[in-house]
Amino acid sequence: MKSINEPQDKANLLFIFGSHRRNGNSEKILDIVKTSPYCDRINIKSIFLLEKKILYCKSCYKCNSMNECVLDDDVKEVIEDMKASDIIVYVPVIYAFSSNSIFQTFLERAGFGFLRPQGRPLRDKLAMVIVIGRRYAHTTVATQILLNILLNEMIVVGSGFLPLFYGLGKFPGDVNFDTEGIEALKQNLKRTLEWHFAKKGVK
Question: Of 44, 160, 176, 191, which sits with the fewest C-beta atoms within 10 Å of its C-beta?
Answer without folding.
Answer: 160
